[in-house]
Amino acid sequence: xxxxxxxxxxxxxxxxxxxxxxxxxxxxxxxxxxxxxxxxxxxxxxxxxxxxxxxxxxxxxxxxxxxxxxxxxxxxxxxxxxxxxxxxxxxxxxxxxxxxxxxxxxxxxxxxxxxxxxxxxxxxxxxxxxxxxxxxxxxxxxxxxxxxxxxxxxxxxxxxxxxxxxxxxxxxxxxxxxxxxxxxxxxxxxxxxxxxxxxxxxxxxxxxxxxxxxxxxxxxxxxxxxxxxxxxxxxxxxxxxxxxxxxxxxxxxxxxxxxxxxxxxxxxxxxxxxxxxxxxxxxxxxxxxxxxxxxxxxxxxxxxxxxxxxxxxxxxxxxxxxxxxxxxxxxxxxxxxxxxxxxxxxxxxxxxxxxxxxxxxxxxxxxxxx
Length: 370
Description:
14 helices, Rossmann fold, alpha/beta, 7-stranded mixed beta sheet, 2 domains
């Protein structure tokens, strides 16, 4: 199979969808890999690195002409013209948050396989997990940075100093993002409160961290009381494939301390805080009710070298399934990969995505056998 790796064009997106080691493995399996010139530059991976591994360096149009295109982020406006029947696109899609992309995929009859909806029987999301871990850790770093007074905020050191109370960090959601954010915050010696509806998950966090992260059952009242006293709030609520539920209302934000900071990591799934809208790395923040909001939709792009390797480690085995078996056979044989199938033959093959978009769901097994 011919595999295309275009350069990412989303604002400040410096990751690339494969490493030179990944290229080498695909070549050893007998597949051709087309990498757009300069695609790895932002991740400190040179064209020479890819060429030595066996990639053919090409322009964007040629990379997109491949049978299977592997990316990091959903296709941008300038890339929609490349969508076509027969193309398999393997990337983060987040269609619940980007209905225009969904419309383009469906209208062009492109087969879209989304990293974020590949799901294990346990409910874990193996291709979202590494970027969730990166995003969670960045969220705390970003929050600590924007709590500095030069940004118009409270001017608080996250860990405090002896004799001075540290910052109070409230994390909503104890999944991979939330747990990673809370872990880094407690390591920086902040006062950390982690909320989730899953008591078993909170029990696990408590056992691991032995009380250094305070846990609290999540409901409207507990969230409202927690964030009213918070210096930093990190939103980390996820519904696989669907739009993130709004758990912090504008009224709650209005009740927060002036100069507090919100980081909404769920913004690439629509956001879990009513007052957030997606921002970019170039212009990442804005104020609402005196509270600074950070809502960058591709946070892991801030550390592209780390993120590229972490992402490829997770996606590569599934990429091999797709190129070795073909998308129909791979999806039919592997129920985990089947969850990643979002669009095919102009239909939506993921129930959560279909519900979020208000369109008809078609069983993926019917589509792959059509």
